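For anyone still unconvinced, we reproduce a single protein record, the chain in one-letter code, the fold tokenised, and leave readers to judge:
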Amino acid sequence: MPIALWVAQGLGAAFFVMHGVMFQNPERARAQLPYARALGDGTLRSIGALEILGGVGLIVPALTGILPWLTSFAGVGLAVIMLLAIPFHIVRREWPNIGLNFVLGTIAAFVAYGRFVIEPVGAR
């Protein structure tokens, strides 16, 4: 199970950091993601910053052993962001985005559960 958790952490971190970096440039985000046009610059940058912090939080604390419990909370935070994104996309009828939010939220929730319960970091 530890391998599955590290794979989930790596995949989640890669996606969330890449997406978060894109949101730091609102014009670029709007050019590539139609739904970004419905959000203000501050909102995009805030979501992006949270996704970057969450993505880093999925890896760095567990890897370094410094405050490893933050990895679990990063998973919870990212899962919540994905849960909040689903109604936004439902209203806009962006079905593929809802599926992606569900998958990414599930990955984040798996990391949170895995690092809280199954294989807590630093419990060895």
